[in-house]
Amino acid sequence: MFLYNLTLQRATGISFAIHGNFSGTKQQEIVVSRGKILELLRPDPNTGKVHTLLTVEVFGVIRSLMAFRLTGGTKDYIVVGSDSGRIVILEYQPSKNMFEKIHQETFGKSGCRRIVPGQFLAVDPKGRAVMISAIEKQKLVYILNRDAAARLTISSPLEAHKANTLVYHVVGVDVGFENPMFACLEMDYEEADNDPTGEAAANTQQTLTFYELDLGLNHVVRKYSEPLEEHGNFLITVPGGSDGPSGVLICSENYITYKNFGDQPDIRCPIPRRRNDLDDPERGMIFVCSATHKTKSMFFFLAQTEQGDIFKITLETDEDMVTEIRLKYFDTVPVAAAMCVLKTGFLFVASEFGNHYLYQIAHLGDDDEEPEFSSAMPLEEGDTFFFQPRPLKNLVLVDELDSLSPILFCQIADLANEDTPQLYVACGRGPRSSLRVLRHGLEVSEMAVSELPGNPNAVWTVRRHIEDEFDAYIIVSFVNATLVLSIGETVEEVTDSGFLGTTPTLSCSLLGDDALVQVRILRACRKKPNSLSSVPGPRSGQLNEYTERKEMSADVVCMSLANVPPGEQRSRFLAVGLVDNTVRIISLDPSDCLQPLSMQALPAQPESLCIVEMGGTEKQDELGERGSIGFLYLNIGLQNGVLLRTVLDPVTGDLSDTRTRYLGSRPVKLFRVRMQGQEAVLAMSSRSWLSYSYQSRFHLTPLSYETLEFASGFASEQCPEGIVAISTNTLRILALEKLGAVFNQVAFPLQYTPRKFVIHPESNNLIIIETDHNAYTEATKAQRKQQMAEEMVEAAGEDERELAAEMAAAFLNENLPESIFGAPKAGNGQWASVIRVMNPIQGNTLDLVQLEQNEAAFSVAVCRFSNTGEDWYVLVGVAKDLILNPRSVAGGFVYTYKLVNNGEKLEFLHKTPVEEVPAAIAPFQGRVLIGVGKLLRVYDLGKKKLLRKCENKHIANYISGIQTIGHRVIVSDVQESFIWVRYKRNENQLIIFADDTYPRWVTTASLLDYDTVAGADKFGNICVVRLPPNTNDEVDEDPTGNKALWDRGLLNGASQKAEVIMNYHVGETVLSLQKTTLIPGGSESLVYTTLSGGIGILVPFTSHEDHDFFQHVEMHLRSEHPPLCGRDHLSFRSYYFPVKNVIDGDLCEQFNSMEPNKQKNVSEELDRTPPEVSKKLEDIRTRYAF
Amino acid sequence: MSFKREGDDWSQLNVLKKRRVGDLLASYIPEDEALMLRDGRFACAICPHRPVLDTLAMLTAHRGGKKHLSSLQLFYGKKQPEKGMGQNPRPQNDLKKEETKPEAPLLTQTRLITQSALHRAPHYNSCCRRKHRPEAPGPSLSCSPLPARDIELQSEKISREPEPGPCPQAKELATASDPAPMSPTRRRALDRYLTLRSSGWIPDGDGRWIKDENVEFDSDEEEPPDLPLG
């Protein structure tokens, strides 16, 4: 078995975000890392929409990311610390739309190791040096400079190692133009390590250490080290030099402290807490991320606590001495992994979990009633300030980037009867979790829908002048009339446009510079439309008819003209579709006007033609004029619903490299539209599709929208790149904003983190279990609130009673949405769970069962029992009082519910106590198999509880999943891979007969056939293991029965071992695997979803030739196009197990983003042309997915 | 990189040689004369006390022993009348080869030698093929002690075997799908036996069913449930 890995949707969770001017212009851009992906985002300052410019997979783990700019420079570079053992400096090339590796310096082994640098990066704020540090011991400093040609240079590394030292965070201190300085949060464990009494360990203190890079002596010195009172978690650089007082802010538990050299005393301010918080008051509060905003005149910091509250931090100075730290509550947004304040006044929040947000900073919070807390205010030690969280006041949400991260579970099924299966994805964490339904297609945002008096035939938009940016009129043609709408602030009907409204319009457009032409029927004539004449488009405003005529061999059905290339008078080609199933390209050059250039035969009669220029990258010429140089493509829509796309040679007019795709049952109509500054084609059949080029890859994506009949591009001030379309008797203005997205999603909110769900096969309802650690149930929350309100009243003095009662009432009524403000943290070992029955189509909750506090649901199954007939039962495995570390559990229960009311309600039947966590349940031969800790048991339904019928105690650690097929049971152990068990009915025994040889920490598994199972582990590997054909599953237990004591050990694995068929490192933890078909009529593939929100598939090769071809593509790309961060591709894919029998399609598809000459080289090696290679790449993708 | 043996470690080479010999020997042990256990060890199916042996070599040594040889006589003395003429201690394929008497004995011999030399693993697969043997289960069904009695109680049709001695085929009875068509009554009886057995009831040998103490039952469940026989 050979498989090909394809990513359908890249990871969406963000681990780091930095901002700067990466393209070198004034535009503010954001670079985010999504684990193994580097992405460049550009928020449009006018619309507030975030556009993705470039996404690159680096085949390595990005561990740190920093932007830096050389002194006096205008362009930011990106420094990447990864697991490659190398420091890499990247530059964004806007002309080629790619990251270019400028420097790559090797310093250590690859992999995420303790003492190999890469975990922390710090740059000197003046852009003179960069420090890269490991978690322990090693730190390297590189000096950055420029050479005579103003190119960036990097020095050899300077060492700043110190053994036995752990590092928590590193920042560059802003010291102006003095010697660069770095501040580190460190801990020296040498003494603690050598002291067996443990006394030293208890007294070990964290230190703040400054390292100075002496530029004169060219070495690094450990300048100064100071023990800290509180344990810090991160540092913030304070602007220095001419901009501020310099120094650092140390964020630690409950406090933020300012420190600097010299006479500067430490300034310390407690972190404010929410008033009347349900959280444990003993729990410390820390800042989790921060962003700095600096202008010429002022600076401030935004720091976010782990509850999501953002504080604006300012420093009061007196002659370069900081006298006061001031904190002011700013707003509350979801907890972020990184925040960026852009110079354009936006705040980008890369959420830790769930969607990311772009906010506009509407107010700086300077002049409002919000109290300001200061370090100068006298407070007792251990006391803090309190504030009241409130809805957004200073920030305005402008854009939201969908993120599925974390995906905890996914099932693919066609529950909505749409013939293409939907992906039901349980994602998110805590109160921000949701069930999302993903469908293949582009999301369409409806800008306007208006009803028309009749059913129109066609719609066009026209500009008033050729130089105009926006369209002026929408012309709608009916059977016997024409409606003209003018586009302004609103769209309204006009009669003075000059168009004749009483007849239908055949076509209309702008002619010349500022003339509008309406084509209408004057007199019906029965002339055969099989001759062509040519009209040159003069700039003079005169219309001259060319005298040449061209008789075609058959009737003309459709025509298309290419756009006039920049700097030319006319377009070179005319494409003509004829009734004899051909398309001809005809020259429009005045020298050989109307000469046929080429012809293509078609499988059916053409319906519509469209020549577009696509696939070019945005270019900027010397005059600063933007234009794109791409390829010309002729799109041919056929009457049988097929779309052909052919490359049109811009010189000879030859047609080559035809790609075919079936779009729908109706004839395909084509319309040229503009998408993100490039031309695109809207193809309409029974479904509408958009063919566009995005990040140097062609996309042909269906629109998730109803059937449209006619469309035209639309540009107005509010909607610069829209579409106006008609559907029955409505006129719709649509916008397609999420280009590049494969799925459109509908989200239904959930209460806690969803763990698993099952589908009831009769009603298609979902039964979801949601469980959160460190959370209160609704009942406990209400109880705690009540208790706090009572305490409030009690604590008040006699005269304040009334006021206190009022406050208590207000507190009880206060209801801040937990999805923004977060749920209260209940403490370690506190669990809350619900069981939900949900309709997957409407997303409404049909039934909800709240479990008691500290009951955590971990497994669910829906099944029938052979002794009860047709009734369906839902079994939920629940752990009681589970503490994760050090692990302890008070026991568990299996709740049994009967599904009643057509699968809509859960009727509680009974509750079966068990000794350990029931983490896996699977129906098995009319009974159930339950994994209770490490015990595998068969249970039958009893009257008062489930009855244990059979047991196997020989599973190694903890059963995390159970799959069954026939008499075979495949148990996944949390640490010991798969164990094959056979149930013997006549002896009522479960006997282990085979297992795997590798220690895999299995997260999920899926059966591929009777002998084969695919599994994924928590380190991000996917494997397929198979029992060898001579496996004997009828092994007997030792018949003597007197097994020796030494024979019962855990190391005594099964005698038969599974073989590894395939190994592959995905790079993200895979939590669901399913064998399914994704497109109707497609072949089966193995679909996986990852914790970071990615969705991918593994597809089998059907022919040896294909496999051979892709193996060579992969091989050439590994050498010709090595990964960006310096990690070797082969070693990345073999991170834990050597990669076996899988070809990486993500790497192969990077062929399309290689430079043309390299593409040519690689394809020559393969005995093909570049278009042929990219066609092969596209084919294998569309055969299995999208 | 190659995996060629390096050095002149003779003891290791001898160990390997010995193992190879053991593997080759394994092909001469008939499949129903030993059982492969879950942990990879072997039990001799000939000797009534079922000795468990760690390796094939030990099993081979055991098979050369006096005790085993006397059991062997007893075993086949008992087995032959059951199975008739077809039974032979040799494995099935060997038997066939001997019977057909090939025309080129030298060729056959070399082929056999090459085959056994090319075996990568011990060519031994104890029991999984037993059920496919056409002549095996039919008559031996009745020699199974417990189900037979149960069936008898239900239908009173099958005469009891005079001596219900240990018989390896008994275990196969339930799971192996019998190639010979089963009468509906017997199938039902078998079904009932399996259902009761898998829900934790154990026949006590007197035709009654007792509860397995490791299995849970409903509190009011004193008797095994009557399954519909019709």
TrEMBL record, chain A:
UniProt domain RSE1/DDB1/CPSF1 second beta-propeller: residue ranges: 445-519, 540-735
Entry's localization field: Nucleus
Gene Ontology annotations for the cellular component aspect, listed alphabetically: spliceosomal complex
Gene3D superfamilies with a match to the protein in the record: 1.10.150.910, YVTN repeat-like/Quinoprotein amine dehydrogenase
Chief site of localization: nucleus
GO molecular function: nucleic acid binding
Location of the RSE1/DDB1/CPSF1 C-terminal domain: 832-1152
Alphabetized UniProt keyword annotations: mRNA processing, mRNA splicing, Nucleus, Spliceosome
Residue span(s) of domain RSE1/DDB1/CPSF1 first beta-propeller: 14-401
Signal peptide span: none
Subunit structure: Component of the 17S U2 SnRNP complex, a ribonucleoprotein complex that contains small nuclear RNA (snRNA) U2 and a number of specific proteins. Part of the SF3B subcomplex of the 17S U2 SnRNP complex. SF3B associates with the splicing subcomplex SF3A and a 12S RNA unit to form the U2 small nuclear ribonucleoproteins complex (U2 snRNP). Within the SF3B subcomplex, interacts directly with SF3B1 (via HEAT domain), SF3B5 and PHF5A. Identified in the spliceosome A complex; remains associated with the spliceosome throughout the splicing process. Component of the spliceosome B complex.
Family under the similarity heading: Belongs to the RSE1 family.
Protein name: Splicing factor 3B subunit 3
Provenance organism: Chinchilla lanigera
TrEMBL record, chain B:
Protein known as: Sodium channel modifier 1
Sodium channel modifier 1 acidic C-terminal domain ranges (all copies): 183-228
Keyword flag Cell membrane: no
Sequence segments annotated as region (Disordered): 78-107, 158-230
Domain annotation Sodium channel modifier 1 zinc-finger: ranges: 44-69
Predominant place of localization: nucleus
Cited InterPro entries: SCNM1, SCNM1_acidic, Znf-SCNM1
Source domain of life: Eukaryota
Subcellular location: Nucleus speckle; Nucleus, Nucleoplasm
